[in-house]
């Protein structure tokens, strides 16, 4: 099955550095990478930019919880 490059990598991901290359070059991981992806495309993908901003918010909240839990776990270890 051949997939058209525009299906995987639409033009709104290619302005400047590609979104995927940016995410990988900064080792952002899945949750932060999703935030970057949705912020990159929110003005271009849907008629209503809030669709992607809410998706970004969902991933950002999960990322905050993850790091809060890690911080709390590290604090517990040092006590």
Provide keyphrases for this structure.
79 residues; mainly alpha; elongated
In words, what does this structure look like?
This protein has helices at 5-8, 19-25, 29-41, 50-78. It has 79 residues and is an all-alpha fold. It has one domain (5-78). Helix 2 (19-25) packs antiparallel against helix 3 (29-41) and helix 3 (29-41) packs antiparallel against helix 4 (50-78). The mean pLDDT is 86.
Summarize the structure.
By secondary structure, the chain is an all-alpha fold. Helices cover 67% and strands 0% of the residues. The chain contains 4 helices and no strands.
Alpha-carbon Rg, integer: 16 Å
Q: What portion of residues is helical?
A: 55-70%
Write down the secondary-structure element order. HHHH
Q: Residue-averaged pLDDT, rounded?
A: 86
Strand content: under 5%
For the record, the count of structural domains works out to 1
**Oligomer classification:** single chain
How far from one another are the termini? 55 Å
Principal-axis shape equals elongated
Uncertain runs are: none
The total strand number stands at 0
Describe the main β-sheet briefly: none
Figure out the total of helices.
4
- What is the SS-derived class? mainly alpha
């Amino acid at each position: 099955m051949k997939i058209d490059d525009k299906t995987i990598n639409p033009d709104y991901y290619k302005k400047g550095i590609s979104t995927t290359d940016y995410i990988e070059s900064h080792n952002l991981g899945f949750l932060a990478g999703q935030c970057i992806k949705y912020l990159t495309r929110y003005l271009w993908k849907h008629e209503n930019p809030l669709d992607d901003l809410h998706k970004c918010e969902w991933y950002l909240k999960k990322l905050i919880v993850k790091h809060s839990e890690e911080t709390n776990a590290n604090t517990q270890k040092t006590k």
